[in-house]
What does this fold into?
Amino acid sequence: MVSLPDGLAVVVKRDCPTCELITPVLRQLAGGNERLTVLTQDDPSFPPGLSGVVDDTDLEKSWHLNIETVPTVIRIKGGRESARAFGWHRGEWETLTGVRGLGEGLPAERPGCGSKTVDPGMVDELELRFGGVSFASRPVEIGGYEDDVEACFERDWSDGLPVVTPTPVRVLRMLRGTTRDPKEVLGMMPPDYPACTVEKVAINAVMAGCKPEYMPVLLAAVEAALDDRFCLHGVIATTMYIGPIVIVNGPVRRQLGMNSGVNVLGQGNRANNTIGRALQLTIRNIGGGKPGGVDRATLGNPGKLGFCFPEDEEGMSWDPLSVERGIARGKSAVTVFAGYGVQGIVDQNSRTPESLAKSFAMVLNAVFHPKTFPGPDVFIVCSPEHHRVFRNAGWSKARLKEELHKLCVVEADKIIRDVDGCAVGVPDKLAGKTLRKFRPDGLQIVHSGGTAGLFSGLLVGWGAAAEINSQPVTKEVRG
Amino acid sequence: MDNRTLLDPTGELKVVGRQKPPRPSSLDGVTVGLLDIAKARGNIFLDRLDQRLSERGIAVKRYAKATPSRLAPIDLKQKIAGEVQVVVEGLAD
It folds into this structure.
């Protein structure tokens, strides 16, 4: 806190023409009966020739006084503020000071300037310095001339790309993006199982390049990934290609400016790319899931740098994925799926839903291997032009799924081990049976992508028996 | 230029060093556990080991996980720890 003597206090800065203008007023007040304290924000020698000028170039007093404009004149009575005026307005100053004839020859009024406490970026710096902010995370000192990005690489905090350095002020700003307590524990993060707190997620969100307003989506994604049904430990450790894929639904997509259109699964949109990256950095840095360590992926996939995209809800006739999965319409949600992709479905010829569904099924049946039945869970990313074929024929998403399940079957005799000279296949004991490629809940459909192009894609999951391995998990986005 | 501060993004765990138990010099009098983690063809490897160990008169107990994707349940780990002195698992395909 700041304590000022009873009387008058005026906060000024040399860089303000109005403050320069009223220096005769300050001299007038200094010669009066009341004690005058002048606090100067940028130059201790300003105003010249006045005694009792207080150097406030560190802005501590201005911050505690909540100064937004200079000059500001404050009356202090009994150690407390009793009145305040901003800028120069002769009438207001005379009322507040009780002195008549102030600043004769000066204009009657002039607006003030912004206080240095509200310079761009300064508000957070000052809150950090004087506002009693503390972090639970360990402070790491780096040298004044040390390259801060390189310092993060050297500490093994990076996914291979440069990170935004997690300075306290950036983390403070990131935490403003959520109403949740920085100390809240979202869960224990595999594979090392330390507590994954909101603050730790915020640090990694800074490093990924997120904006603070992305935090609620990111926190929901982390919670979904930590849900036991997702089996994050196994997702990290597997030799398979997969990583967490985040699919966003609801109003938050537009609020964050996410891209659900052209190049939806590619680069170029900050929210899409940094939210996915932040989830992976969280897993890497908090949980300790690093390639070559517990992450034993044989090939991995480029989406392991981060894979997040929204559904195009506005352009489709179907229910959003989140609504299908139990979230109220109009609410925002994330669905996290352990997968990789994209495996393309190129069909530029089908104009009937029957033909297009057959194309989808032919590609679906080849997932993992044409002789592997059952296969993993799959998310189909249906493009707008393919969706149009189903929409025009009146096919709902449920109808399309039903047709695909009917089409995604095989006679076991065709895929028994060593049939067609290929060792992959099902055991002899299944001869004569008809086998399904997907479990009943194993096919999901989302609608995204540019409006030109008869191309859809598959996001392919981990392995069969998803109900005991990794299932997609949906969480509502909260504050 | 003054030093700067960054905030540690890691889990800040203190690593506890754990010593591996010494390898037994002999399997005489030892019960060997064979853990099938449900990886493809792991059973072939473990069946063969079972056969070879049994031929040498070494006691064998068999255990299985439902899926390689998840950590072994705690009761299975405790059961193995309570019943055998050595464990072999078929880790990869």
